[in-house]
Amino acid sequence: MYRTPANLFIVLIIASLVGCVSRPAPPLLSPELETRVTYYAGDPIGGLASKDVTQQLSLHAEDAIPITARFYLLTDMPGVRFDPLMDHARLIIGDDGTDPLQPQSPMMANARLVLGADAESLAASIPGRAASSAVLCARCDGLALPGLTTSIAVAHLEPITLAGHRQAERHVTIELWREPKLEGTSGDRLEVALIVSDVVDRLYDSGEVDPSVAPVPRTEKIVLDAMLEGAGQHMALFAPARFDPTGRLAYLLVLEQGAGDAVANRTGDIENELAHVRDQIDTAHERGQDRRRPLVESDLLRLRRLQAVDALQDPDHAREALVVLAGDAPIASGMALMADDAAIATWSTALVPDATSMRERADDGEALAWSLERSALALLQRDLARGELPPEFTALLLRWTGDVGRAPGVLEASIARARNLREFQDTILNENRIALEDPDPAARVRAFDWLSMNGFEVTGFDPLDDRRARRQALRDWADQQVLATDAGPTERSPQAGSSNGADGR
């Protein structure tokens, strides 16, 4: 563990004059930091490897690559001559959701990434700078081994305390991982991810009161497309020092990949270091997978849904957000793709007041899909009752509801009765069965065609036959369904009709 001097006060850089005598600026003082180097089997995206994989790992000195991370405090940012960090972000995972389409980071939006020869030149120049413009805050050394992630964390000792939130840590963690060696490859490439934890301002807009801004803790994992690809390679990262109220100070992180031979040729303590790495790997599993649990498919879906809920308020991304949230809901999905921008804006705005409850149900894709389906149906039913439903939406409604799509009252009642998407579909199925006995031939044809299209053809029934023939066909079909049910379970079938039917429908 490394600790800098216990002083959180950053010296203001002042050039002062006393009479005619100029005094040099005082040196920068580092904030009090704590560093940690830990290891786990797996990678930052997939999380911890299984226990079996972990136990089978073999750690050898000849496979180890030395890694050095240096943290500096500087009096200036580099300007625009280096790439924005976000240009190299291939994945961002935020604990409160992020933009579902484009990587954005409220904490690292102004950060810059330096690669290649520029990074090497920059790393060489910093130690020669004046004490008033640069100070080394921390140095960490570790090893990179195949199949492992090396985690280098630098944290402010003073925690973040916000009303209504648990205490949080202001820190940055660099995670470097090596894929297991493959035949014909050196296995020396190190992929890089950042984990940043700090306070950000969040906009709260309920739609009923004026928007408000409040600070909240946030943690992000940013996976980069840039890599360290061999001995002597450097990577550097500039970021504003968020604790500095003047906005003039910046952190510089310099990563350096050493030569594997430098480790392999060491004697004495290398085996002790490898034993320490093994202990860290085992400890990661003993402590559980809460911090680095595998990012399985369900986790990714949940994150995407959270991101989509947040994006409902963004006109540029509202349509894509509706597609994500609609899931397997057929009418909501179709409406999200077909509606014009004005209709999308109306729909997404209507959903914003329910954003909190939607976020709470982010784990339940079916519940979210039903929320979207119900809201889409309500909008279509309203326009249907007014006689204002556009032809494309009329076709969409008829495709998925059959004759119910021509009866606004029946549609409204069906929406109200259903508690989920399956119940709604079952209700629609039964209503179309009832419509087979409707006195209107057009209704019977729509219902029959819809049932047939969805695999529920009523054998022997002709919607244009006389009433007696139709009812006899329905009775015969009902008897067939009873026999099939007695014989054993079958696929879901529409309920058989009765003679009193729905002539008054």
Task: Give a verbal description of the structure.
With 505 residues, the protein is an alpha+beta fold. It has 2 domains: 17-295, no CATH class; 298-487, no CATH class. The protein has 15 helices and 15 strands. Strands 4-3-10-11-12-13-7 form a 7-stranded antiparallel beta sheet, covered by helices on one side. A 6-stranded antiparallel beta sheet has the order 6-8-14-15-5-9. Residues 1-21, 97-103, 288-296 and 488-505 have low confidence and may be disordered.
How would you summarize what this structure contains?
It contains 15 helices and 15 strands. It is an alpha+beta fold and 505 residues long. The protein has a seven-stranded antiparallel sheet with strand order 4-3-10-11-12-13-7, covered by helices on one side. A six-stranded antiparallel sheet has the order 6-8-14-15-5-9.
CA gyration radius, whole angstroms:
32 Å
* Total helical segments: 15
According to DSSP, the number of beta strands is 15
Question: How would the global form be characterised?
Answer: elongated
| Structural class designation | alpha+beta
Q: What percent of residues adopt helix (DSSP H or I)? A: 25-40%
Uncertain stretches of 5 or more adjacent residues: 1-21, 97-103, 288-296, 488-505
Task: Kindly give the count of domains.
Answer: 2
Mean pLDDT: 77
